[in-house]
Amino acid sequence: MSSSPMAGSSSSARDRPPTRTSFIPEIQSMMFALGDARRPLHETAALVEDIVHTQLINLLQQACEGAVLRGSRVISAEDILFLMRRDKKKVRRLLRYLQFRDYKSKVLKTIEDEEPLDSTENNKRQRLAGDFLSWVDQTGEFLSLSDNQEVDDVKLERLERLERQTRGMDSAQYSEFCESRQLSFAKKASKFRDWLDCSSLEVKPNTVAMEILSYLAYETTAQLVDLSLLVKQDMTPKTDPFSHVVSASFIHYHSNTEIKRDPESPETTPPSTPGSSHSSKPSNGGLGLDSKTRQRKRKKSSAVSGVEPPSGAIQPCHIREAIRRYSYRHTSANRGNGMAFLAC
């Protein structure tokens, strides 16, 4: 099996069956909620979908092989946890997600039955994962994962970035952002199962396994956006060494106001009219600047000042470069262990 997370994804967009279920609109909304522009590019979302789909299909195949080896009739949480066991941080995130799912189920049941909430019962997901991890735990590393209250630096940094992103939003934009934040693969369980073509598998995933797969699909999308924003930041010309600590939209807004106050900027030079000139400086031998020349100057001025173009969305090249960097860092660590998965 290929060790690159990009394996098969570069050509899958061209080879994608026309009848395959698509999550591109949902992924575009998720990308916006994770830090991309308000209108993420369709081609970027399609590339993200292909990468996530390729990752999950390979994960499912490995989990299916594990289920067959242990004589199970279904792919269960144990088969996926076994594949994730090498990364303790990601296992801890998954355990927190399962804890949240258990708590949500109890709250919904309490509302339906009008009974007081009992925090000790019906923790089936946590108990299932905990029993398996205690069975494979030979060093004691997994024992404290479920009770570990250590701050997740990745999640904290993501939340801080989103907080900066929302500062400049109006009420309509913020409402759309909040709706996008609620989207997930788990909310479209039937579509998600069709997307993974689970009906063709020799051994099919059970309900809890599908919940974990939907969680991993979202986490893979989030990690792709995280890495791509770093790449995009590196590729953006900068004059201020501290400009990376401010969100792209904040830089774009305030840099625009500075450019407009600059008398040398083409934005403050009014267009010339036949027989008269509003500019104190002659240009092009006394002729007025045509629209193409003005547009080229504006682009040059933006590039020099480090301002992003209005369409500051993540590009496919950012995704590909993020994958290249990730693969370079993880190929040696995962050599001989199969595919280097983004989310596990």
From TrEMBL:
Coiled coil: none annotated. Residues 1-21, 256-316 are annotated as: Disordered. Residues 1-12, 274-283 have a biased composition (Low complexity). One of its GO terms (biological process) is transcription by RNA polymerase II. One of its GO terms (molecular function) is protein heterodimerization activity. The keyword Nucleus applies. The keyword Transcription applies. It is found in: Nucleus. It comes from the Eukaryota. GO terms for cellular component: nucleus; SAGA complex. Keywords: Activator, Nucleus, Transcription, Transcription regulation. PANTHER family: TRANSCRIPTION INITIATION FACTOR TFIID/SUPT3-RELATED (PTHR11380), TRANSCRIPTION INITIATION PROTEIN SPT3 HOMOLOG (PTHR11380:SF16). Belongs to the SPT3 family. This is SPT3 homolog, SAGA and STAGA complex component. It comes from Oncorhynchus kisutch.
